[in-house]
Structures are given as C-alpha cells and as structure tokens.
Automatic annotation (TrEMBL):
<feature type="domain" description="Methyltransferase type 11">
    <location>
        <begin position="178"/>
        <end position="240"/>
    </location>
</feature>
<dbReference type="GO" id="GO:0008757">
    <property type="term" value="F:S-adenosylmethionine-dependent methyltransferase activity"/>
</dbReference>
<dbReference type="InterPro" id="IPR029063">
    <property type="entry name" value="SAM-dependent_MTases_sf"/>
</dbReference>
<dbReference type="Pfam" id="PF08241">
    <property type="entry name" value="Methyltransf_11"/>
</dbReference>
<dbReference type="InterPro" id="IPR013216">
    <property type="entry name" value="Methyltransf_11"/>
</dbReference>
<protein>
    <submittedName>
        <fullName>(wild Malaysian banana) hypothetical protein</fullName>
    </submittedName>
</protein>
Length: 312
C-alpha cells in the first residue's frame, strides 16, 4: 500500500536470515507482452543474512525429519541475487506448507481502523520507486490499448505506474477512500478489505494485469486472494507482486516478519503455486542501489492458457 516516510516505530525493515538457495541459475528474466522472456542486462549484488533459513524448516516439515530439502543446497551463483535464484527449479511440498498461525499479526484489530486516516506518503524510497516504475514500463501493455484492464490491489494515492500511462479501465482496490480519490492513474476505485472479503468484484477472464505494491505481506488470506486473481485474469494475464524489506510490522503476517528477502520471494511464489492455474512464478531483483537504498523485488506469474497442462 502506498502510504515523507511513516514513523520509524511503525514502518520497520524486516530482518534478513541465512538462506539455503537453489542450484545456480542465470539472472531472472522479465516478462514481455507476449509472455516470452528476455534476459536481464546485469546481475545484482549478492546478499546473505544470518540465522536459520525458514525454507529449511519448510523442507523438513514437508518431507519429515531427515528428508531431502526442497531448496537445493548448492552454492549460490556469485554476483546473482538470492531472490532471483530462489524460485529456480523449485520442488514444492505436496500440500500448502504454512499453518494458520503463520498469518497472525501482532495487531489483530480491524484493518479498517488502522487505515481509517489517509497517509499521503510512500513506503519505499525514490530510487526503489523509480526502479518499479521502470519495470512496469517494460512489461505493461502499451498505453491506450483497446480493451485493456488493469487492477491495482491494495492501492492508495499513488500506484507508481509510468507517467502518463492510461487505459480505458484502471481500477484501484484499497482501504482508504481519500487516498484512492487522489490517485491520478485510476479510472475507478473500490474500497474493500481483502482480509475480510477476498472476493474480487470482477467477471471471469476480464483483467489483463494485476499489480500489488509492498502489500502482499499484509494478506491474511493469500490463497483466497490469489485464486481470485487467477479467476479474473485473462488467459496469459500477468500478476505482479512487488515488495521491499519495509512494512508496518504490527500488521504484517508473522511468517513475513520472521523471515528475509529471499524467503519472501519463496512465500509469494508459493501463493501462486498453491492457488493453481498459474505458470511457474519468477522472482526478479530490481533493487537500484543494493546496500544504499531500499531493495525492490518482484515475483510475477501469468495465468495459464487453455492449452497448457496443469502444474503438478
């Protein structure tokens, strides 16, 4: 949710943890308008944290004590972001690996109270915003394309879309009406708490692109939301989940606040996988100045087309 920065007591960076990474792979690719992939120009700086990996815990939970890890133990590729490697060659657990308590929050008061006052601020710094806007400019349908519909989930007074970007229909769904009214890119808006009602008010197969900026960590019913995303997307439609390492920690789910950046990419990838009907998710590190400004990550996927076999 887009919302000068909020008080440090509310908006905190999540702590990185040591990550067990998959087999080395080339830098992740960006989606193109026709669904093909193009290689990124330059690898990002390698980041490693400290502590036990959440993914190792998932692997043991899913396979039993002594079972093989679902995340390969090979050395990460030097110079390539762990976030970009984490969804390469994933072997997913057979069942959804998270427990109900993983989606608890420190503050379980109604979200409508927390978001009742408008916050005309941004949650990531300017370089991260520019990186996200540039990414959008590369993957969005051309401006003023006939029949194109975009939906910005957990929207606010700014969506970080390219300057002057227009479509016949760009819908923002968020929690604060005053913020949504100020968003210049929206053609319409809907005030809705997805943690209370995850049903998206759109017909099947009607949306070309869904975006969500630094808010996936607040979803307490993510599989319900991602199933709805899959339902409303057109075949081949694109869903882009972007996030950083900053959040309102009292409202972020516990599995997010207790894990690091690469784990977050795996978690979002799991949402796509277990919702069903999506292509294998891809993680991209678009951080503009690693170590000097806010990091910025994207996990994206497309809705499977009718001629694609279901993923196992």
């Amino acid at each position: 949710m887009a919302s000068a920065s909020p008080p440090a007591s509310l908006l905190l960076r999540t702590r990185p943890r040591r990550l067990s990474l998959p087999h080395p792979a080339a830098a992740a690719a960006r989606p193109t308008l026709d669904g093909s992939q193009g290689l990124r120009r330059a690898p990002r700086r390698l980041f490693l944290g400290i502590g036990a990996s959440f993914l190792d815990q998932v692997a043991h939970m899913a396979s039993g004590s002594g079972g093989r890890s679902f995340v390969a133990s090979a050395r990460p590729q030097r110079g390539v972001s762990p976030v970009e490697q984490i969804l390469k060659n994933v072997v997913w657990p057979e069942t959804f690996p998270f427990k109900d308590e993983d989606f608890n929050r420190f503050d379980e008061s109604p979200d409508s109270l927390f978001y009742s006052e408008p916050r005309f601020v941004t949650h990531i710094d300017d370089p991260a915003i520019r990186a996200l806007t540039e990414y959008y400019s590369e993957v969005f349908p051309p401006s003023n394309s006939s029949g194109v519909c975009l939906v910005d989930l957990c929207s606010s007074w700014v969506s970080h879309y390219p300057a002057g970007y227009r479509q016949d229909r760009i819908v923002g769904m968020g929690m604060n009406e005053e913020e949504l009214k100020r968003n210049p890119v929206l053609t319409e808006y809907i005030v809705q708490d997805l943690n209370v009602n995850p049903k998206l008010p759109f017909e099947d197969n009607t949306v070309d692109v869904i975006t969500n900026v630094v808010s996936v960590d607040y979803l307490t019913k993510p599989i319900d939301v991602f199933k709805e995303m899959q339902r409303i997307l057109k075949p081949g439609g694109l869903a882009i989940m972007s996030f950083s390492n900053r959040c309102f920690w009292t409202k972020a789910i516990s599995i997010w606040t207790s894990t690091g950046d690469a784990d977050h990419a795996w978690i979002v990838g799991a949402y796509f996988h277990y919702a069903g009907g999506f292509e294998p998710p891809v993680a991209v590190d678009i951080s503009p100045n690693p170590g000097r400004s806010d990091p910025m990550y994207v996990v994206y996927s497309r809705k499977q087309t009718a001629d694609q076999p279901p993923l196992l």
